């Protein structure tokens, strides 16, 4: 491996424009594809194979007319005032009429008129069935506020019409019974008639408008949602009304801002301090930007052909920037060391740096890729896409580090080390090198038992909050106070009840093949649903033509993240429940809360398998690299300590709300469901980067003659500076994402930043040398039979050095 990479590095150094031109061409192709295809990202989180997703898929098959996307708007009045004044009603009515006139919006008023002509049973099925699916679609996108807005009007529509007409609502032709305690809302009335799709709270402070498009939101032509928002905003003109559109009406934004640039600036400063040269410091950043540009740009270029969540390219950017800079830093630092320590020419030093440090980069990148690709076993398409895009970006980072970087070094030539730096290095040769690092590692080795116990205790205490970690999808209830999402959530909660932020969609099907749900069963099921504990409102949305599917809307009394709501979902899904048995039906449940539960359950189910896969594969790689039993096992055990502490800190900050002002959010909430499994994979790969960088240097010292604790100390001295710099760069890049406006990106950025900080400085830079010093030379023990079986990858470059010395002795050059 080292010999091959040595030759590759020298070739790239000697022919820089060939390699640079090839990479520029690749980038040009990506940019051209991006310009032609454009960018298309979505907020969808489709959960294939889960109960909630199966219900949604079933409805799309049976009721295709209801498969369009849904949106909502919350109207609020100034404090102490009402919306139902003639002027404000007229303004809202006019704005809503403008929305219904849009080409891609279903006109509920026309459907209501058609329903009256067809009869109540058919009309209810036709109209309400369409509104049902909208709510489900919104819930599937993980938008709590949107889901509530989507289903609440349909649920209350039946109640509202009953109040308006002074009659009981009809359930599919059977006379239903409304509870005695009527809800604190009703239909918005205009000229004595209810406005279709609109609810207003009894105190007149807030109204909820829900409507449906004829196709999915991410399939709508450009400008459609802008026209809708413009129409809705007209209600605000001179009326005092505030219109809060749902997030589904807003274009999907790439959650990247100026804060990420600050992290990159800090990384550049660290590079300058580490390498002592603007030229040397600029190369890692340039190489990383090249790899990320191709990886992330390529992801956006194909986003029109595949479903890609808006978080996917951001994750690739986060990981790609961090590892790209680190990999290039490791190689450039090795080249400069060879120049300073051995007096080699820049060309020869570049080749040897690629051959030795490049081998470590290759296997470090391979470990990251394996950890990311392990996410494919989960079987969720949005996670798989995230893993694949990030993995390709890391692969590109490795390739540009091994080919483009030596080409750029060839252009720089001997200027990679200034004359002043060379003179300064010679002056330090007789003085103790890496004074701070040397004193630190010798203290760690001397007090190794105290260090080991201390690190375990500190990380153990930090891990305590993990026991109370609550997983879920962040809702409007945990958004910042100044956001429309939070304001909409609170307005709905105050005007209609918190349960409207997490409605449930219930689908009933006959257990007997060919059976049908008649009017009597529909009415009875409605009453039974209404009588279940923690149900605020239950109403029928209708049946399909042959009666094989009946749809109900259930509004819980509690919010979408409350345990009581989760228990309600479990109760409704219980196949042995008396409700299902009495009417001979099976019940399916979907909606935001149901999807949240399904995601958490599925991730919890596959998490152990995921850990086993990435750990086993990575242990094999580390075994090949280090040819040791102890080193891979120790590396993995240390990672488990750091990742538990990482999740503990994340829980304390984002769930308990500790230091929320410092990290730019107002209210704590659940930890994102897929954050632990995603962060575990990324952190494992990155932690093994530092393991490879640091311990490969110790291994190199051992192979080249140092023994016992001296090999640990010498190797630590050689690698500590670059590992510390690399860790600080990663922490800076990830920390830049903590202050973005997207709460999901905030949590991922924080977890990765704190995870790298703990793993790099407490595990790799402290615990590793302490444990290695305990075992001395035995740390490199490997059974003879296994030693014969394993291929010698020569990561340390020992074979390469032997070959080069032999060539020098014979006067040959490579």
Automatic annotation (TrEMBL):
<keyword id="KW-0812">Transmembrane</keyword>
<feature type="transmembrane region" description="Helical">
    <location>
        <begin position="287"/>
        <end position="308"/>
    </location>
</feature>
<feature type="transmembrane region" description="Helical">
    <location>
        <begin position="449"/>
        <end position="467"/>
    </location>
</feature>
<keyword id="KW-1003">Cell membrane</keyword>
<feature type="transmembrane region" description="Helical">
    <location>
        <begin position="719"/>
        <end position="739"/>
    </location>
</feature>
<keyword id="KW-1133">Transmembrane helix</keyword>
<feature type="transmembrane region" description="Helical">
    <location>
        <begin position="751"/>
        <end position="775"/>
    </location>
</feature>
<feature type="transmembrane region" description="Helical">
    <location>
        <begin position="677"/>
        <end position="698"/>
    </location>
</feature>
<feature type="region of interest" description="Disordered">
    <location>
        <begin position="122"/>
        <end position="185"/>
    </location>
</feature>
<feature type="transmembrane region" description="Helical">
    <location>
        <begin position="261"/>
        <end position="280"/>
    </location>
</feature>
<feature type="transmembrane region" description="Helical">
    <location>
        <begin position="386"/>
        <end position="412"/>
    </location>
</feature>
<feature type="compositionally biased region" description="Low complexity">
    <location>
        <begin position="166"/>
        <end position="180"/>
    </location>
</feature>
<feature type="transmembrane region" description="Helical">
    <location>
        <begin position="607"/>
        <end position="626"/>
    </location>
</feature>
<feature type="transmembrane region" description="Helical">
    <location>
        <begin position="353"/>
        <end position="380"/>
    </location>
</feature>
<dbReference type="GO" id="GO:0005886">
    <property type="term" value="C:plasma membrane"/>
</dbReference>
<feature type="compositionally biased region" description="Low complexity">
    <location>
        <begin position="122"/>
        <end position="131"/>
    </location>
</feature>
<dbReference type="InterPro" id="IPR050545">
    <property type="entry name" value="Mycobact_MmpL"/>
</dbReference>
<feature type="transmembrane region" description="Helical">
    <location>
        <begin position="638"/>
        <end position="657"/>
    </location>
</feature>
<dbReference type="InterPro" id="IPR000731">
    <property type="entry name" value="SSD"/>
</dbReference>
<protein>
    <submittedName>
        <fullName>MMPL family transporter</fullName>
    </submittedName>
</protein>
<feature type="transmembrane region" description="Helical">
    <location>
        <begin position="12"/>
        <end position="36"/>
    </location>
</feature>
<keyword id="KW-0472">Membrane</keyword>
<feature type="domain" description="SSD">
    <location>
        <begin position="278"/>
        <end position="411"/>
    </location>
</feature>
<feature type="compositionally biased region" description="Low complexity">
    <location>
        <begin position="140"/>
        <end position="158"/>
    </location>
</feature>
<dbReference type="InterPro" id="IPR004869">
    <property type="entry name" value="MMPL_dom"/>
</dbReference>
<feature type="transmembrane region" description="Helical">
    <location>
        <begin position="314"/>
        <end position="332"/>
    </location>
</feature>
<dbReference type="Pfam" id="PF03176">
    <property type="entry name" value="MMPL"/>
</dbReference>
<feature type="domain" description="SSD">
    <location>
        <begin position="610"/>
        <end position="774"/>
    </location>
</feature>
């Amino acid at each position: 491996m080292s010999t091959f990479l040595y030759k590759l590095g020298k070739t790239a150094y000697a022919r820089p424009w060939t390699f640079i031109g090839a990479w520029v061409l690749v980038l040009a192709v990506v940019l051209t594809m991006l310009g032609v295809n454009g960018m298309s990202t979505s907020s969808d989180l489709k959960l294939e194979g889960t109960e909630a997703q199966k219900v949604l898929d079933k409805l799309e098959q049976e009721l295709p007319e209801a498969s369009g996307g849904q949106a909502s708007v919350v109207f609020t009045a100034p404090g102490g005032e009402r919306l139902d004044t003639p002027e404000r009603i007229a303004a809202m009515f006019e704005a809503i009429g403008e929305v219904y006139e849009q080409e891609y919006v279903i006109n509920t008023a026309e459907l209501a008129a058609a329903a009256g002509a067809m009869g109540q049973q058919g009309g209810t099925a036709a109209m309400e069935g369409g509104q049902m699916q909208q709510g489900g679609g919104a819930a599937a996108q993980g938008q709590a506020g949107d889901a509530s807005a989507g289903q609440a009007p349909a649920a209350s529509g039946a109640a509202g019409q009953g109040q308006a007409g002074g009659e009981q609502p009809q359930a599919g032709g059977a006379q239903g019974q409304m509870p005695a305690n009527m809800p604190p809302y009703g239909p918005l009335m205009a000229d004595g008639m209810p406005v279709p799709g609109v609810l207003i709270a009894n105190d007149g402070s807030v109204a909820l408008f829900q409507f449906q498009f004829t196709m999915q939101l991410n399939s709508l032509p450009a400008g459609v949602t802008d026209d809708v928002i413009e129409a809705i905003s007209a209600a605000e003109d001179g009326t005092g009304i505030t219109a809060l559109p749902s997030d589904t009406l807003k274009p999907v934004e790439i959650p990247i801002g100026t804060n990420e640039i600050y992290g990159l600036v800090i990384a550049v400063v660290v590079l300058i301090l580490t390498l002592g040269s603007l030229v040397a410091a600029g190369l890692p950043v340039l190489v990383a930007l090249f790899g990320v540009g191709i990886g992330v740009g390529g992801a956006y270029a194909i986003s029109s052909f595949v479903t890609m969540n808006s978080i996917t390219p951001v994750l690739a950017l986060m990981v790609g920037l961090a590892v790209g800079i680190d990999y290039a830093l490791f190689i450039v630092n090795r080249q400069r060391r060879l120049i300073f320590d051995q007096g080699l020419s820049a060309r020869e030093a570049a080749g040897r740096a690629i051959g030795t440090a490049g081998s470590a980069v290759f296997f470090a990148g391979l470990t990251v890729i394996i950890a990311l690709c392990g996410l494919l076993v989960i079987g969720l398409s949005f996670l798989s896409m995230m893993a694949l895009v990030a993995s390709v970006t890391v692969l590109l980072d490795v390739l540009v580090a091994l080919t483009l970087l030596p080409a750029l070094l060839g252009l720089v030539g001997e200027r990679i080390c200034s004359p002043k730096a060379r003179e300064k290095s010679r002056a330090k040769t007789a003085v103790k090198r890496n004074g701070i690092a040397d004193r630190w590692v010798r203290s760690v080795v001397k007090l190794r038992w105290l260090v080991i116990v201390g690190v375990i205790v500190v990380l153990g205490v930090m891990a305590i909050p993990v026991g109370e970690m609550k997983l879920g999808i962040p809702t409007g209830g945990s958004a910042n106070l100044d956001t429309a999402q939070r304001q909409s959530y609170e307005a709905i909660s105050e005007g209609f009840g918190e349960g409207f932020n997490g409605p449930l969609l219930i689908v009933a099907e006959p257990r007997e093949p060919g059976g049908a749900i008649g009017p009597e069963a529909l009415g009875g099921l409605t009453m039974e649903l209404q009588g279940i504990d923690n149900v605020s409102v239950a109403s029928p949305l209708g049946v399909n033509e042959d009666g094989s599917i009946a749809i109900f809307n259930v509004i819980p009394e509690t919010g979408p993240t409350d345990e009581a709501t989760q228990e309600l979902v479990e109760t409704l899904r219980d196949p042995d429940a008396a409700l299902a048995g009495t009417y001979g039906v099976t019940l399916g449940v979907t909606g935001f809360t149901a999807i949240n539960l399904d995601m958490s359950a599925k991730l919890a189910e596959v998490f152990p398998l995921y850990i086993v896969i990435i750990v086993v594969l990575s242990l094999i790689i580390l075994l090949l690299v280090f040819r040791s039993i102890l080193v891979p096992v120790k590396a993995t055990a240390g990672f488990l300590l750091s990742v538990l502490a990482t999740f503990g800190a994340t829980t304390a900050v984002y769930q308990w709300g500790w230091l929320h002002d410092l990290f730019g959010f107002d209210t704590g909430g659940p930890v994102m469901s897929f954050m632990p499994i995603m962060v575990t994979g990324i952190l494992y790969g990155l932690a093994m980067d530092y393991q490879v960088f640091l311990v490969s240097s110790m291994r190199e010292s051992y192979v080249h003659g140092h023994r016992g604790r001296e090999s640990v100390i010498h190797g630590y001295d050689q690698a500590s500076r670059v590992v510390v710099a690399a860790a600080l760069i990663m922490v800076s890049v990830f920390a830049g994402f903590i202050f973005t406006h997207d709460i999901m990106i905030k949590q991922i950025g924080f977890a990765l930043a704190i995870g790298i900080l703990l793993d790099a400085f407490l595990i790799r830079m402290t615990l590793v040398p302490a444990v290695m010093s305990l075992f001395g030379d035995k740390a490199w023990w490997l059974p003879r039979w296994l030693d014969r079986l394993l291929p010698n990858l020569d990561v340390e470059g020992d074979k390469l050095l032997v070959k080069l010395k032999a060539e020098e002795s014979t006067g040959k050059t490579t």
